[in-house]
From TrEMBL:
The keyword Transmembrane does not apply. It comes from the Bacteria. SUPFAM superfamilies: alpha/beta-Hydrolases. GO terms for molecular function: hydrolase activity. Transmembrane segments: none annotated. Keywords: Hydrolase. The keyword rRNA processing does not apply. Residues 18-250 form the Dienelactone hydrolase domain. Gene3D superfamilies: alpha/beta hydrolase (3.40.50.1820). This is Dienelactone hydrolase family protein.
Length: 253
């Protein structure tokens, strides 16, 4: 399927978010999928991921979550990001990430993205799918929480801090979720240790949420991101199979 990719601007409560839009180039509306970035932001690798989902028959939106500080890219990234040598990059991105990773900001932005979907002739009416990576896993889960009326499915890959001791931890709002969820946890991920994985599962089970959670053995945080040295080809292939299985079941194209 031929895919067209463009840049679009989305009006939010806090400004204008630039975003990458990928969709089948057939002039017809397709189910919408919201793809949330990892910590490194909107860049060519995420656009390629969006294109791959669009090839399966979806209209995919990848917002620049850091739009309040400017259009993407906000920092210069090497062709291959070495996580262990990326201290300066994290120094620049850390404050941006922390500003986005709150329930209130996530909900406001999700409302704006959904309103854009509603107004677009490229998107079918009704529910959408969401997938997120790292920071994006938090945003995906928060979108499922804040907009249960609109999210049919949400996938979260190598997400961190999803079931902490904080009073605003996402797992505490599990009872609001109506979407089907999938979690691809990395077993070499200090940001989502076994105790948090267990706590998240217990909360989802108690709330009656339909979900599947898997721990990818040997995978580190960021294993789906091919432009970093944490990339794991086996884990990435498994992630694509799980994502497309979820979408085909909960939001068929």
């Amino acid at each position: 399927m031929t895919v067209r990719g463009t840049t679009v601007d989305i009006q939010t409560a806090d400004g204008t978010a630039d975003a990458y839009l990928a969709h089948p180039d057939d002039g017809r509306p397709h189910p919408g999928v919201l793809l949330y970035q990892d910590a490194f932001g909107l860049r060519p690798h995420l656009k390629a991921m969006a294109d791959r989902i669009a090839e399966a028959g979806y209209t995919v939106l990848v917002p620049n979550a850091y739009y309040r500080k400017g259009r993407a890219p906000l920092v210069e990234l090497p062709e291959l990001i070495d996580i262990e040598q990326a201290g300066e990059i994290f120094t620049q991105l850390g404050p941006l990430l922390m500003a986005v990773a709150t329930p209130e900001v996530a909900a406001r932005d999700a409302d704006a993205y959904l309103a854009w979907f509603d107004a677009s002739p490229l998107v079918q009416d009704g529910q959408i799918g969401v997938t997120g990576y790292c920071l994006g896993a938090f945003l995906a889960l928060r979108t499922a929480i804040s907009r249960p009326d609109r999210v049919a499915a949400a996938a979260c890959f190598h997400g961190g801090h999803l079931a902490t001791d904080r009073p605003d931890s996402p797992h505490l709002d599990a009872q609001r979720i109506t979407a089907e969820l999938y979690f691809g946890h990395a077993d070499q991920d200090d940001s989502m240790p076994p105790e948090q994985i267990a706590r998240l599962g217990e909360a989802l089970t108690a709330a009656g949420v339909r979900y599947r959670a898997e721990v990818y053995e040997g995978a580190g945080h960021g294993f789906t991101q091919a432009d970093t040295n944490r990339y794991d080809a086996v884990g990435d292939a498994r992630h694509w199979a799980a994502l497309f299985d979820l979408l085909a079941r909960a939001l068929p194209a």
